[in-house]
Amino acid sequence: MKKAVVVLLVLALCAGCAFAEEEATRKVKEGTLTYSNMSPEEYGDFLDVNLSQNVWNIYVNNHPAYSAYIKTNADIHETFDTVTEMVMALDAGKVDRIEFPEHVGKYFLRQADNANKYVPYWYAQGVNYYLSMGFSEGNKWFGPFNAVIKAMNEDDTLLLLKAKYVGKANADMKPITFEKFPDAETVKIAVTGDMPPIDYIAADGTPAGFNTAMLAEIARRLKVNVELVSVNAGARAAALSSGRADGVFWFWYDKQTKTPRDVPAGVELTEPYYTYDTFMYVGKRLH
Fold first, then answer.
1. 3-state secondary structure (DSSP) of residue 224
2. Cα 199 → chain centroid
3. Cβ within 8 Å of residue 200, ≥6 positions away
């Protein structure tokens, strides 16, 4: 009897060791939204080089079960054209965690039921992201939009809009009203809805949030009408090249080094309208 117990204990210990070793060496798969001119491998290499080791592990210290999922650098990067697709992949176990800008991740976790299903595995810094609008080279609206965005940076309008539509964003964001200018020209601007509450489209298809509020102010200052065009993250560049949209929100680059990171050929960037330096990596709550 004693020998049987000893054998069982040894087998259990071996199984536990094997499981721990497997978890320690498992490849972490990370999901992120599609970037216009970077493959998943290129984006992964970029993060591996630039992400700071100054990370805040949220659950790993008190919940060892999460440790296998919380590495500074992921082993495999997968890209998705929409947040919905990315979250579905996380739910299905196709990726272990998904990447959000900090404010986007916090908004995601505030949504109904999400706090019970997901947790922030960790935060990371290391890159200053500058979001800009993109226009096809030669588009006549690039100059006017660029000038107004620059002015809105200088007079703190963008700072105030960020505080209202990002810092205080909740699940019940109101639609943005655009002024109408009879006989004025119309500018077609694409929104993705894939970075709520920055780039946000409500469940009924109505754009709202920070980008839309900023666009309403730009239109007011330029006295132009705006036609909103809905595209997903993966179709931003195509919307410009096809002429479906004059301008698109959400192209990013490293301002310090003047290095474009999400800028396809033939696209001009406005002055930055939004900046952030912290990522949140979200994964499933382990029960």
1. coil
2. 9
3. 173, 193, 207, 208, 209, 210, 211, 212
Give residue-wise pLDDT tens across range 156-196: 999 999 988 888 777 667 778 899 999 999 999 998 888 88
User: Looking at the predicted structure, is the pLDDT value of residue 16 above 70?
Assistant: no
Output DSSP code: residue 93: T
Q: Looking at the structure, give the CATH architecture of the domain made up of residues 129-276.
A: 3-Layer(aba) Sandwich (3.40)
Q: pTM for this structure?
A: 0.80
Distances (CA, A) of 254 to 146, 170, 258, 274: 18, 29, 6, 12
Domains 21-127+280-284 and 129-276 are alike in CATH topology: yes
Q: What is the CA radius of gyration of the chain?
A: 22
Where in the chain are the domains?
Answer: 21-127+280-284, 129-276
Q: What is the DSSP letter of 39?
A: -
Question: For residues 38 and 261, is the Cβ–Cβ distance under 8 A?
Answer: yes
Secondary structure tally for the chain: helices H, strands E: 9, 13
Tokens of 8: 């069982």
Judge contact between 262 and 146, C-beta under 8 A: no
Angle at 53 between CA 50 and CA 55, to 5 degrees: 115
DSSP secondary structure code for residue 115 in this structure: H
Rounded to 5 degrees, φ, ψ at 90 are -65, -45
Token readout for 10 is 């040894």
Structure tokens at 236: 């931003």
Separation CA 213–CA 158 (nearest Å): 10
- The token pair at 233 is 């993250």
Q: Which of 222, 192, 173, 214 is nearest to 83 (CA)?
A: 192
Are the C-beta atoms of 122 and 56 separated by less than 8 Å?
A: yes
Question: How far apart, in whole angstroms, are the C-alpha atoms of residue 81 and residue 144?
Answer: 30
Strands (E), 137-193: 186-191
